[in-house]
Specification:
seven-stranded parallel β-sheet, Rossmann fold, three-stranded mixed β-sheet, single chain, alpha/beta, 39% helix
Amino acid sequence: MIMVTGANGQLASLTLQELAERHVAALGGTRSPAAGQRRLDFDDPTSVDLTGVSTLVLISAGYAEDDRVITRHQAALDAAVRNGVCHVVYTSLAGDADHLGFALAHRATEQLIKSSGLGWTVLRNGLYAELFGALLTWTADGVESPFGDGALAAVARADLAAAAAVVASNPTMHAGKTYDLVGEPITAVDIAESLGVAHRTIGLGEYRAQLLADKTLLSFQPPMLASIATSVRHGFLCTTGPDLPHLLGRPITDPLTVAADTAAAMRAATSTTPTTKSSPGSSRT
């Protein structure tokens, strides 16, 4: 049986949907299970039960500092070994993103997986096109961002879910492989042009000040988001590659369309006044 962790999150739920459409039996695991799901709370390691699971799709358990994320992943791997799981598919971070503020937990988890004795496949996911669109801020004159004309090889979340389903459906074929699942480079300027509005670049200092002033963000999120901004702005996240279309067996979903649609939806959701701004942390899962 396949189990997908973080079942209530967007990537996990899409992965479960993809598996269901392929008529592959799969179970969702989460700390707050609904009917047909299994309770998994990696903050309570002794309660983690993976009995009957042959392939574990480990969706990164983020939204915490590195030490807590890594501890959660270690708990999942310990349970996998204890309960006889054969293969772990881990959703990691794109290969050219080692300098991002949240890369360390991913790379540490990759090492833990490779030393666990379990079969493994690492999916190094690029940043979501949805996230890129959500990180644009709407103003009275259009949109602003700290990205300048830097490009991001953004990827639609649904494509990453489909890739995870492909691998989980036949893990033996993908054993011991690391896939770099990135999309096509797009810029904030491209998104603005697609929406028919102007784009204004703000400085990284101004952006960091906005993040620190945003009380909806958790304490570890401003440095993470700032690291995305400077990395995109200075051209460190625009590398493309063939792995994603190869796994999907089709062209990838157009990331510009996805990003623009997300930005437009953010505008509609925050249109109470012409200058209402969207939260920079509103699309992370």
